[in-house]
Amino acid sequence: MTALAVFPVLWLAWSGVAPRPAGLIAVAGALLIVWSPLLGNPEAAPADLLQPALVPLIMILVYLAAAITVQDAALQQTTLEEKDQALKQSLQDSRRRARLLDAVLDTIDVGVVVLAKDGHVMLMNNQQLATHQLAVPPDSDRWAESDMFVYAQDGCTLLPAADRPLARAQRREAYSDCIIWVGRGTEQRAMAVSARPLNDENGEYNGSVVAFSDVTEMLCALRAKEDFVASVSHELRTPLTSIIGYLDLAVSEAEDEDLSATLQTSLSVSLRNAERLLVLVAGLLTTVSDTIHLEPGELSLRDLAMSAADSAAPRAQTAGLRLEVDAPSDVRGFFDSTRVQQVLDNLVSNAIKYSPGGGTVTIRVGLGDRCAVLEVEDEGMGMSEAEQDEVFNRFFRAAAVKKAGIPGVGLGLGITKDIIEAHGGQISLTSQPGEGTTFRVELPLQPEGLQQSV
After folding, report:
1. Number of C-beta neighbours around residue 243 at 10 A
2. What value does the mean pLDDT take over residues 204-222?
3. Which of 172, 180, 196, 317 counts the highest number of beta carbons within 10 A?
4. Which of 160, 180, 162 is nearest to 111 (CA)?
């Protein structure tokens, strides 16, 4: 009978309903069960009632043990449910992010390929899928990059398998704006490819991301622009040469006939401007052909600096600028005098042009470490860091220059850099917006640093 009392106690503990009243009911029920035979017996003594008192104590312990077990199980169940809910929420968030990533990748007009650590493709968006389909040979169902029509920048030379974008990315290379062509015939497209390796939390290589940007229209536009510039330059060069020739004769005859000084000055100014226009046309042709021919000879850089200052003096005076030459000692080297003079003229002309507020333009000549140093410093508009990175690019003009309406086409500094590099030298600059700019040219003194053409 006593053993049967355990079952209702366990049931009350497992029910979890009103724990304290349930505990009291369990004790009272146990006492009732063990005392009921004695209460109906008139011969039972009080001492007989104390003998089964151990049973309620045991029932309390059983109840507490069962209640604690039930509470632990309930707590574990709650914890598991919370973790399950968190996992479901995380899974939903991951799926949502994956859908968002897929939507973004399929919306942008850049092809994206994600390579795994072992080189297999983990992810490819629809844009790149179309590019791959364009590059796959029509009679092949293989998608290996080595089998595709991938050409070098000329659009004709097949790239070796090891030099193709994904192969380079698999070798953990990081590169930017590598121009390739994919496909053949009229469907061929130009791509600017960039790649970056991915590292895990331990810094170990964990794959690469490769981006393909279609630049076909841009390259075609650049080619059309170059063809146009070349055509116009060729058309202008012939009549300009004739004009310069006749103006030169007219100047000579004016001097021989002792004509009025005003007429002689007008003819000289016309001749000088025609020659400057011819230099500009030659610069346009140089921009298109990327060829600079040099005729080196020994010359004085101080004399060239003085000549550049003399030529620019009228413009500097008109602009309200002081023009100074700082050449305490002569520097002689083996250079192309016409080209180095063009470098100085370009730098001094820019210094005057971009100093609308006046100030001083200084031309310096000196010696560096086995090289001649030319510097042109102004106190003009200056440039930001972003503009300094672009200043030697063809047709680049700073936003402030455009806003100020200062004329120009953005070719001078690009041609200047080409001339200096053809001499084996280098050009650099320091600048601050509103505080002016200093261009520094370093030219090797030895003739072996000189190229005949580039």
Report:
1. 16
2. 88
3. 180
4. 180
Q: How many helices (H) and strands (E) does the chain have?
A: 13, 13
* φ/ψ of residue 443, rounded to 5: -120, 125
* Encoded tokens for 436: 């002016």
Both structure tokens of 268:
């000289």
What percent of the chain shows pLDDT beyond 90? 13
**pLDDT score of 1 more than 50:** no
Q: What are phi and psi of 3, to 5 degrees?
A: -65, -35
Query: Which token pair is 403?
Result: 């806003």
Q: Which amino acid is at 275?
A: E
How many CA atoms lie within 13 Å of 387's alpha carbon, on the beta-carbon side?
17
Number of other CB atoms surrounding residue 249 within 10 Å: 11
Angle between helix axes 261-289 and 216-256 (nearest 10 degrees) is 150
Nearest CA among 392, 393, 402, 403 for reference residue 426: 392
CA atoms within 13 A on the CB side of 210: 27
β-strand partners of 442: 373, 426
Strand ranges (E), 46-188: 110-115, 121-124, 150-151, 175-182
Q: Express each pLDDT in 148-158 by its tens digit.
A: 899 998 888 89
Token pair of 110 as six digits = 């850049």
Judge contact between 323 and 309, C-beta under 8 A.
yes
Highest mean pLDDT: which range of 8-17, 101-110, 288-297, 321-330: 321-330
Is the sign of the CA dihedral 282, 287, 292, 297 positive or negative?
Answer: positive
Residue among 418, 303, 325, 320 at smallest CA distance from 377: 325
C-alpha angle 129-132-137 in degrees, rounded to nearest 5? 140
Rounded to whole angstroms, how far apart are CA atoms 398 and 184? 39
Neighbours of 449 (CB within 10 A): 15
Residues in the chain: 454
Q: Tell the burial category of 38 from Cβ atoms under 10 Å away from its Cβ (0-12, 13-18, 19+).
A: middle
Structure tokens at 342: 């063009």
Q: Determine how β-strand 371-377 pairs with β-strand 436-444.
A: antiparallel
